[in-house]
Amino acid sequence: MRETNTQIATHQLKCISKIKIFLLALLCAFVSKTLSGSFINSILTQLERQFNLSTSLVGLINGSFEIGNLLLMVFVSYFGTKMHRPMLIAIGCMTMGFGCFLQSLPHFLMDPYEYETTVSKTSNFSSNNFLCMRKETQIFTPTEEPSECTNEVKSSMWLYVLAGNIIRGIGETPIKPLGISYIEDFVKTENSPLYIGCLETGSIIGPLIGFLLGSFCVKMYVDVGSVNTDDLIITPADTRWVGAWWLGLLICAGANVLSGVPFLFLPKSLPKVGLETNMDIIEEDERNETKAEKGDITIDFLPLMKSLFCNRIYVLFLVTSILQFNAFVIMFSFLPKYMEQQYGVSASDAIFLMGIYNLPPICFGYLAGGFIMKKFKINMKQAAYIAFCISLLDYFLNMLCFLTICDNSPIAGLTVSYEGTQQDVYMERNVLADCNIDCNCQDKIWDPVCGDNNLSYMSACLAGCETYHGTGVNMSFQNCSCIKSSRNTSAFLGLCGSSSACSLMLQYFLILSALSSFIYSLAAIPGYMVFLRSIKPKEKALGVGLHMLCTRILAGIPAPIYFGVLIDSTCLHWGTLRCGKSGACRIYDSINFRTIYLGLSTTLRGVSYVPASFIVLILRKKIQSAESNTTVTELVVNRKENEDKEITRQSIHLKDVELQTKF
């Protein structure tokens, strides 16, 4: 008997260590998969400029990840629980690594990046055709050669990125549903919220590293090492700049492959922690379960589906998640572009600020939510109230972002007149004026300069500049006829910087964003536990997988596409390729961009609180009914006990009377 107890204790120790090893491995898998996902989100604008795509097409690339998820989601969520779950997770991680590697291939197959400019990119200028050359003919003209257009656009190369993202989505499929179901099956019930909170924390650490990596890579020029960066006439703040997006993808590929290795050495199943079970009994149960699964692996699929869709709380939570996920995809995917266009920061700085201000608060919120659930033993009704009220508070706080506004950047001929007065950005624009009409300028080329009057111009020629000084990014232009300033009539490369008032608005926006992120994430764990506890244990893996499937079909895929179309409608000037075709958008109407970006996400989140309120009401009625039934049962039991006591007392009294009579 002593040996048996020792074996059980030793086995329990091994099980606890294995489940913790699994948790640690799954945490690394969450970090690596979210690392690659956030990095790709951070380089969307770089892909847009590299391949000269519209925002809607970039949205399709972003949504292709969800398409990959759809191909295997239901199959993996249902049948995966009956297979070797750690092995499937290992295969998924390595598949994600291959997808990231495939996405980086276009860089090695394409020629060096060519950006749109009228200025020579070498230090030896053979001509001054980028200046105002009055009564002369410009040398640079768009060509209609189909072969040159094909070589320049490289239209087929972005398909590698699309295919790689689909493969990455396929690989990500088994990680979350099988990982969470494995933990739910083999840990104590009260520890489950804390463990899931740790995993959600990993889902924040990964994006934090991903955004920092993205910020670092975007600062590096895309062709670093193969071109002389001293000859560049653009900086990372320029809308034509493309960073080294491919470098980060290679790092993500290696991280995903390595994260899958530990799962190769983990067992198919473990005894639930805390239960004293003999190993021989466990193995016998596994053999019996395997035999049963082979016989009816598909028989209970439809009944489980019916049971899930007859569960009112599950269906309402599904509708809430779809609406919220639409808003989340919009906010998360296009936040760097929004900050870049709204506040005039560079793509690298926008990615860095997004990671620093948003992700640590979310991390602390997830941890706090999981700790509160475990510490105070929050029941289902209380969790629903907490999630609803805190999320609603965050919603109203987030609406303050409408106050953090900046005006359009003043660009002569686009947003303001050449005299500096505001004009309707959607009226028929004419970038030519009396001061440059005889300069023979290309009126569609985007090569902006900033004048001494703090007014930007689309090119040095359109600013009326006749001479230049210096080379590369230090080039300056003089004798500019369109610049009316009390100091000089000179200009420098690049758009004019944002005003101090706009920089202050950026700080307010970042502070609101950080507070909103913390409050929203604080409600996430209680809300998710309501979702998990609303479904039966047998339905759990299928329910989680179906939830992920529906949110991807109705939010993850369409949201970036339809929002990309809306963003494209606010474009003020499209880039022009050498063959005359339109390239990526160079400048947006920041006012309409802000209205669409904040307005659409706010509307979607507002509608989501309708089904969420029904969840709270249903749980309230259900628990009140349960309490009422419990009270009635207790009354019946108490009445029965009182009656028994009274009968006993009367019997004793009668016996006493009888005894007294006898005496």
UniProtKB/TrEMBL annotation:
Annotated membrane topology: Multi-pass membrane protein
Keyword Protein biosynthesis carried by entry: no
The keyword Phosphoprotein appears for this protein: no
GO CC entries: basolateral plasma membrane
Gene Ontology terms, MF aspect: bile acid transmembrane transporter activity; sodium-independent organic anion transmembrane transporter activity
Record-linked InterPro entries: Kazal_dom, Kazal_dom_sf, MFS_dom, MFS_trans_sf, OATP
Annotated transmembrane regions: 21-40, 60-80, 87-105, 244-266, 313-335, 350-372, 384-405, 508-532, 544-567, 596-619
Entry keyword set: Cell membrane, Disulfide bond, Glycoprotein, Ion transport, Membrane, Transmembrane, Transmembrane helix, Transport
Compartment(s) of residence: Cell membrane
A biological process from GO: sodium-independent organic anion transport
Domain Kazal-like: 429-481
Alphabetical list of Pfam families matching this protein: Kazal_2, OATP
Domain (Major facilitator superfamily (MFS) profile) ranges: 21-624
Membership in a protein family: Belongs to the organo anion transporter (TC 2.A.60) family.
PANTHER family, per the entry: ORGANIC ANION TRANSPORTER, SOLUTE CARRIER ORGANIC ANION TRANSPORTER FAMILY MEMBER 1A2
NCBIfam families in UniProt: oat
Name the record gives this protein: Solute carrier organic anion transporter family member
Gene transcribed to yield this protein: SLCO1A2
